Every structure is written in structure tokens, then in C-alpha cells.
Amino acid sequence: MDERRAHPRFPLILAVQYLGAENVLDYTENLSAGGLFIRTERSFDEGERVTLVLSFPQLLEPVELQIEVVRRRDGSDGSPAGVAVRVPDDRPEDRARLADVARRVAGVRHPDPSFRILLVEDNALVATMYAAALRRLSETEHVPGLGIEVASDGAAAFDRLLRAPAVDVVVTDVFMPIVSGITLVERIRAEPTLAHLPVVVITAGGEQERERLAGLGVSLFLRKPVSYQDLSGAVRSLLDGRAARPQAAPPREEARREALTADAEVGTDRADAKPASRR
């Protein structure tokens, strides 16, 4: 069986260091129980074996593995250069370690989360760090059923917010390509079905930026660099507030439902109306 089918890959950024070259720091692009893809400018030969260490602060303690290079990507198509690697069959202990990493990092997938958080961040590494912090919030502070989604810019985020299922909290950076965090908040407040959606803004800006966002109803600001305690505390406070209120219908679905109900009531009134008596 094709190993990629036996072990589905999912996007994930982990730090990669190499034994004997600890000053070199690369990152994974995706990972499965059988292998991973590493973004790197280093030169490797297909079939070459390398010992590396995977890690991620507050998410994954260092894990040492021996891997074998199976394919190179030179980056000529515009994609970052890198190598696809697998754990050799004669390294069962390392294969077990990688499978455990994939299982722990993937976590438990809840088909219907109780709360959904949308992270809006164009830096994939930073987004992964924020997601790790919120995943830790779910695991250590007893917030079950926490679903975390990521959008790379404000345009993608707003498109997601207009679709079901509804998002409970938005955590957004300010400076992003295509649509900035400020423009995203403006669009959220202008959309009736999203106008009261809680938003946390992560910013390195000054008082003028904060005043502009405060005028748009943003009350929670986190200044870079963001600590785990600050991020989890802000989101926890907003989720507690959401839990105390009745759950809103998904964006635009509620408006459509109200329109259908109004049409039905009008139709009923017309059917029940009696003709005026003739004199």
C-alpha cells in the first residue's frame, strides 16, 4: 500500500535540528505517522540517512529520529525548497516515536466542537504557536470541544465567517496581506450577523491604532510578543461570556431563516383573511 495513503499527512510546523549541525534550524511543512516534509536549503542526496531532532516550545519535547531522504524539491516552481523524508523500516523505535508525535500533535478531532476560534495570521509558524497555546487551553484548563481554525489573511477570514458553522471568537493580527486586521474588523462590524462577534486583536501598533479599533468595539488587545497566559486568558474570558448567552444561529443562516418565517407568516395571514362582506 502507498505509505501516503496508509499515513495521511497534515500541515504542521515543528522545529528541525540536525545532530552535528545544531546551529542549523529548519521547519517541517507537514507530517504523518510514517514521514514528513522539511523546508530546507541544505543539500541532501536521495537515500541519505540523517539524524534529526523535532521540537516545538510548550507543545513537543525534543524527539530524536533517524530519517531517510526520499525526494527533493528544488523550489524552482516557486514553492520553498525542501525534502520529503521517511523513517526507515529497520528503525521501528523511531517509527513508533514519529507515530506518537503525529498522534499527540493531531490531538482529538471533535466532529462538532462546542466553541470555534478563528485565528487570522499570515505567518504560519506564529499561527501554529498560537494554535498550540489554545490547544493547551483546551487540555489543561478544562475547555472541552475547542475547535481551532486558521486563516492566512483578512479576506479568507471574512469568507469563513460568512459560512456555517458559526465562529465564537476571532483572534487576529493587524498587519497582513490582502486584507488587514483593521479592515477585517470593519467588515465584521458592518455585517449584521457578525456585528457582535468577540474579537481579540494582536498588535505591535501604537495608541492611535488601539483607539481606532476600540471605536470598532474591540476591547481586548494583546501586545506582541504574546505570552501563552495572555492569549489563553483573553480567549477564556470571551468563551465564558459566550457560554452564558444563548447560541446564535450561523452567519446569514439566521437572517435567511427569519426571512422565510416572515414570508410564511404573511402567507398565513393572507390565507386566513376573510373577504369583506358585501352590502
What's the architecture of the largest domain, going by CATH? 3-Layer(aba) Sandwich
Main β-sheet: number of strands, strand sense, barrel status? 6 strands, antiparallel, barrel
Question: Could you name the CATH class of the largest domain?
Answer: Alpha Beta
What is the terminal separation in angstroms? 87 Å
Instruction: Tell me the total number of β-strands.
Output: 12
Beta content: 25-35%
Which sequence of strands runs across the widest sheet?
Answer: 2-3-4-7-6-5
What's the helix-strand series? HEEEEEEEHEHEHEHEHEHH
**Fourth-level CATH superfamily of the largest domain:** Response regulator
What is the count of structural domains? 2
Q: Which stretches of 5+ consecutive residues score pLDDT under 50? A: 1-5, 246-251, 253-279
* Count of alpha and pi helical runs: 8
Concise synopsis of the structure shown:
The chain is α/β, with parallel strands linked by helices. It has helices spanning about 5, 90-105, 125-140, 155-160, 180-190, 205-215, 230-245, 255-270; strands at about 10, 15-20, 20-30, 35-40, 50-55, 60-75, 80-85, 115-120, 145-150, 170-175, 200-205, 220-225. The protein has two domains: about 5-105, Beta Barrel (Thrombin, subunit H), CATH 2.40.10; about 115-250, Rossmann fold (3-Layer(aba) Sandwich), CATH 3.40.50.2300.
